[in-house]
Specification:
The chain is of the alpha/beta class. It has 17 helices and 14 strands. The termini are far apart.
Length: 364
Amino acid sequence: MKVLLLEKDGRCLWLENKVLKGFLPMAVRNSVNPFAKKMYVIIDWISNDYGRVGVDLKWLKSMGVPVAKTINDLPKNEEFKVVNTGYDSIVSEEIILRDRGVDIIDKPCPFVRRVRDLLEHGDQRFQYVLLCEPNHIIVKNFASIFPEDLILLQMENYAENLAENVNGKPIKFLPYVTFLESDVDQVFSYIQTNYPNAEHECLRTCCMWVTSKASPIVEINQLSSAQLEGIKDAVLISTAGTTNKSVISMEKTLIDKGLNVHSVGSLKAFLQFERDHKDDHILLVRSPIPNQAEKPILAYIDKGWLAAQWAALAQSLWVKMALVRAYKAYMFIKYRLNPALSYREAKENGLLTDAASKRANEEG
């Protein structure tokens, strides 16, 4: 089977640089720093529907980051900070935590935060229309700041929902950040055509993953007929049993390009697909969401079966957890052998415990 790979790896650059290489490693290190407050991620803020929507919980577990399922599971007798990242917070719960004096590291996706800001500072002269799946995490997270007359739309039912719920106000149309621009244009054009007697507004909130030069969506749309000659199938690497709006947008873009889309969530599934399509030429597309299948599949394509097995072993939950435990043990020893280092890192990251700050002030 011949494979064509996109140049763009599908990854969200903000997620890659700010979260995967920033907050998460810092949270792991500081969990064993005696002078630092722990950094907790709240699962309920980043995942939905028992892990089927949003962050892959097995992947999160393998990272070794301190987590609490809900705000009620945060420690009672421990100094900590809460990391608000990705899909932003459950706003009503964030307010509760701040009222309790909990310090929150507030670094959500800037495009998702813009959606929140637009809702929190809404113009009551307009009826807001949010284009988003009903089980998406932001629907849960932002529920407390939704206007009472907000209409929640999906691509498959927008005409019916609008007909049932418009109230005569002009509409502010607010799409979630990973909807395709073509979807946004389709729905807003329908609004303008079917409800013409008002000055409606479309708030352009698509993120860079959808629209920038680094976007795999843009790259797919720009693939020429010569590049796709002989290719009928696209294989999308994703996490089995889960869904995400960015993955859905990727699938739709591939279908619009005339390709049959097949999702694979493991090396085993990819090998079976290869056996069934051994004489075919395919387009292989990587998911924007971190998953366990990508590295083994790419290793197989690049270096063969043994390399793929080694990559699969390295990606396995138990191996990654063992490596994280070993890293934590190493940092635990390093910090205790070098208290000045552990103090300095905690202070530079704004995570110094109250006890460590008080002792430093007394000694200073």
